[in-house]
Amino acid sequence: MFHTIIIVGNVGRDPEMRYTPSGQAVTSFSVATSRNYKSQGQTIKETIWFRITCWGRLAEFASNYVRKGHKILAEGRLVADPSGNPRTYTRSDGTIGTSFEVTASNLQLLSSRAEGEGGYNNNTGYGQSNGSMGTRYSDGSDMGMGPGGMYDPEQGIDDENIPF
Predict the structure, then answer these.
(1) CATH of the domain at 59
(2) In sequence order, which residues have a C-beta less than 8 Å from that of residue 156 and are 6 or more positions away?
(3) Is 71 buried (19+), middle (13-18) or exposed (0-12) by CB count in 10 A?
(4) Total structural domains in the chain?
(5) Do residues 102 and 76 lie in contact, with contact meaning Cβ atoms separated by under 8 Å?
(6) 51: which strand partners?
(7) Helix (H, G, I), strand (E, B) or coil at 55
(8) What digits encode the pLDDT tens for the residues 103-115?
(9) Element (H, E) at 57
(10) What is the per-residue pLDDT for 154?
């Protein structure tokens, strides 16, 4: 069996990098996702925090390029406690909290060009993002997207460019 989770949100704190006793890099940081919805005529804002952990070269990438406030896409697997549930902990006020933890296999920076751009995929090496949600391939093409991530009808989309 296999699962994957994709998180798109804002980085809540600068990454912290450390090394295991064997010398492998580990970086962790938090990401907030949010949505707004209406309930009984009131707008409700829901925010969920995820703890993201990166290993190896991906950890080094995150430590060097990810910063608090950046918008990122993190892809990976959900980490659960031994019973398969989110990890639980006791807060300082005595209440129980849960932690959604993700071990990342791919990161993409989605912030504007001024804040930095690019991405890293643990399996294929560095990738690039043009600051949009458009797909960019290793050969530099970007599936019909023009400057600034806008669709360019002259570039077009044909069957070879569709990623599915």
Answers:
(1) 2.40.50.140
(2) 144
(3) middle
(4) 2
(5) yes
(6) 30, 101
(7) strand
(8) 999 999 997 544 5
(9) helix 56-65
(10) 46
